[in-house]
Amino acid sequence: MTFLVVAGDPSGDMRAAELAAALKAQRPGLKIVAVGGACLKEVADEFLEDLAGRGVVGFWEPLRHLPFLRGLLKRLDARLAASAVDGVVVVDYYGFNRRVLELASRRGVPAYYYVCPQVWASRAGRLLVLKRLVRKALVLFPFEEKLYREAGLPAAFVGHPLAESLPAPHRAGRGAALRVGLLPGSRGAELRRHLPLFLDAFRILRKEFPEARGIVIASSHLPPDAYAAAQGLAGVSVEQDPDYGVRSGLDAAITASGTATLENALLGLPMVVVYRMSWPTYWAARMLIRVPYIAMANILAGRRLVPELIQSDATPGRIAAEAAVFLRDRTGNAALRGALAALRSQLGGPGAAARAAAEILGDYR
């Protein structure tokens, strides 16, 4: 058997690699042809393109990459037409992966969606597209399964991989010095927008908390020189954190909206959620987004557990003021930490990728 697996951003690349490995474990001899990033490349039998490393995100930003994206779609279509591909699995990255799904549909290849688009947040019309193109949606949150099924699309809640990969919540930060995590995002454009902002906010924090240490959590998908703005600053270090050991010992975090906010929540880490984007993207998003929150911790809780500062609200002063609330509580805000960590129970037990693989392979018995 041969499956084509496609992911387009760093977090999707990790999830795709886990699923690809699970597919191969459950069906010996199965081959993976992949478009993704460094993680997926490690498990693929044939790797076609590093799409995740290009950081093509947003509403308008992909326009600059149209020649490359169109060329890649032509290559995938040729592969589907010429090769015996038994199934297509797309992971997140709806804008591009919708086109991949259309190619699979035209070629008569069954397609599956893992880490599905957040249709409950915006653009519910995508459900009609997915209903036409996808054999089964493999969803990470329990409320998504009901939503998809009610729309007439077969769906299975397989659980969230983060619920098993993250260590148990730590009760509070370690040591006498306060430790503040700075998580500006894993894509180049996010980093350029957020890192200077976060560093300015940390400088303000140090006026009240001179002993505080700022730790920039670096993405392995970006080169070290991407973090040059943080190098040599007083009280600031840049560290990678593949096993979440650094984050487990933080007192608070300033975090770009995205997967990191859910990771922080499952670690029980108080955080200020921040997001800036290009103004065209921001105005387009405002017209589409229907949910009252952007941080998954707040969405799952159904209330504002952590502050959110978006676009013009995300100033260094406001970010520092919100973070200072956490730092003044030297007991680690036990109630908030507990409320965040309790969200883990909603995300299923260990084995999300294995359950997703079993759902897919169950159609090929």
SSE diagram, text form:
Elements: E1 2-7, H1 10-26, E2 31-36, H2 38-43, E3 46-50, H3 66-82, E4 87-91, H4 94-106, E5 111-114, H5 126-133, E6 136-139, H6 142-150, E7 155-157, H7 162-165, E8 179-183, H8 188-208, E9 213-218, E10 236-240, H9 245-248, E11 252-256, H10 259-266, E12 271-275, H11 279-288, H12 296-301, E13 308-310, H13 316-328, H14 334-341, H15 352-361
Parallel strand pairs: 1-2, 1-4, 2-3, 4-5, 5-6, 6-7, 8-9, 8-11, 9-10, 11-12, 12-13
Helix pairs in contact: 1-15, 3-4, 8-13
Q: What fraction strand? A: 15-25%
Question: Which blocks of ≥5 consecutive residues have pLDDT under 50?
Answer: none
What general form does the structure show? globular
* Count of individual helical segments: 15
Number of strands: 13
What's the CATH superfamily of the largest domain, by name? Answer: Glycogen Phosphorylase B
Q: How are strands sequenced across the largest beta sheet?
A: 3-2-1-4-5-6-7
CATH class of the largest domain: Alpha Beta
Number of domains: 2
Rounded to the nearest angstrom, the distance between the terminal CA atoms is 12 Å
User: For the report, how would you describe the main beta sheet?
Assistant: 7 strands, parallel
Rounded to an integer in angstroms, the radius of gyration calculated over CA atoms is 21 Å
What is the mean predicted local confidence, pLDDT? 88
Helicity, in percent? 40-55%
Series of H and E elements: EHEHEHEHEHEHEHEHEEHEHEHHEHHH
Reported by name, the CATH topology of the largest domain is Rossmann fold
Structural class: alpha/beta
What's the CATH architecture name of the largest domain?
A: 3-Layer(aba) Sandwich
